[in-house]
Amino acid sequence: MAYHAGTGRQPVCGGLFPGSDLGHKYFCAEPTGAAPAGLSAAPTSSGPAAPAGTPRHPMEPDRPIGYGAFGVVWSVTDPRDGRKVALKKMPNVFQNLVSCKRVFRELRMLCFFKHDNVLSALDILQPPQIDCFEEIYVITELMQSDLHKVIVSPQPLTTDHIKVFLYQILRGLKYLHSAGILHRDIKPGNLLVNSNCLLKICDFGLARVEEPDPSRHMTQEVVTQYYRAPEVLMGSRHYGAAIDVWSVGCIFAEMLGRRILFQAQSPIQQLDLITDLLGTPPLSAMVSACEGARAHILRGPHKPPSLSVLYMLSEGATHEAVHLLCRMLVFDPNKRISGSDALLHPYLDEGRLRYHTCMCQCCYSVPSGRVYTRDFEPEAERPFSHSYEQSLLSVWQGKELIHRFITEHQQGKRVPLCINPQSAAFKTFIRSTAWHSSKVSRKEER
Ligand SMILES: [Zn+2]
């Protein structure tokens, strides 16, 4: 329902990232000077290059800004408009069929997303001839920092900030889940923020489509340990969107207390810390657990819940905040609140109002006030389809499919981009690979 409201509220983020502290560890955008004029020369064998005769624009790799699970992100200047953007290199794509499928899935997701709180692809660099095609380069919006850096920084994090961040995390998550996508690695470092407090969920290297068939096994090598849901810690072979909601609950508590809620040394200790807070779970909450995990819980002493300690996280841990937190940190995934239901909690009313009063792209101002969108938290227009994956049987076939996908994606768009091999950072950029290569990439992932 559209309605009007006054525009008297101040922007929420004034002073959150003051002056030069902006993204201090994140190598925020800085001018690198004009990109070389003219079109680049013949294709190189090591970098992305266009087929001979294709007009293209060389880009200057500037500096690395982050390392995800399966890729390296650099800050670059788009020579077409001088805009600073992020360039993600997806290396080792064609090492084996598993990595080929995973990268293609991530690439298709980045091109599928159309939501302000989810990072999406602005462009893909032109691939070389298929024989030289080894890496994929995706351009996304450049964000100045991430929630991890904000939480560990000395910058103030007020209740207003927490509400507007949490609102955006859940708004993005509702969209992802409505598309049938599980992120599977929600953590503060994967929540990019800029100086206006806009937040975008990123890094879909572990994301996958929800598995409707409970008899199909899914990998447990997901989610950074501190944010891992109890059902995954307990070895459940099938899980759903509730694992992402658990992660968001942990992040909510971390924003309130400015420290990691469950910071354990091992997965077993992680589970112990969770039961210290929530109490020993009933058997009904452990039906999908593996035998060993269930035995571990039952062997230990019976623990009563101690949820009242959540009130001691900070002054911001009001009754309303703790109420919502306790709905997200529920041991039994079937009883945990969903992302879309969490958005209906009164704690998020102010975050919603602030977001749509001065931060969003979906509402606009007229002299008489603000015209609000009809749908504050939109769902995806259609589910993300992964039916192509069944027919992907070889690395070469995957290579052809991805090459065609990128070429078709670019058709009718702006002048294609490539990396300028003359730039000072080119050699480092070409050599840079993923920070760590997850075990998932070498195993059959589900
Ligand atoms: Zn809006």
Automatic annotation (TrEMBL):
Domain of life: Eukaryota
UniProt EC number: 2.7.11.24
Regulation: Activated by threonine and tyrosine phosphorylation.
Region span, Disordered: 38-61
Native source organism of the sequence: Scleropages formosus
Keyword Phosphoprotein: yes
Compositional bias of kind Low complexity: 38-55
Residues bound to ATP: 88
Protein name, UniProt field: Mitogen-activated protein kinase
Record domain Protein kinase: where: 59-348
Cofactor(s) the protein requires to work: Mg(2+)
SMART domains linked to this entry: S_TKc (SM00220)
Top EC class for this record: transferase
InterPro entries linked to this entry: Kinase-like_dom_sf, MAP_kinase_CS, MAPK, Prot_kinase_dom, Protein_kinase_ATP_BS, Ser/Thr_kinase_AS
Cited Pfam families: Pkinase (PF00069)
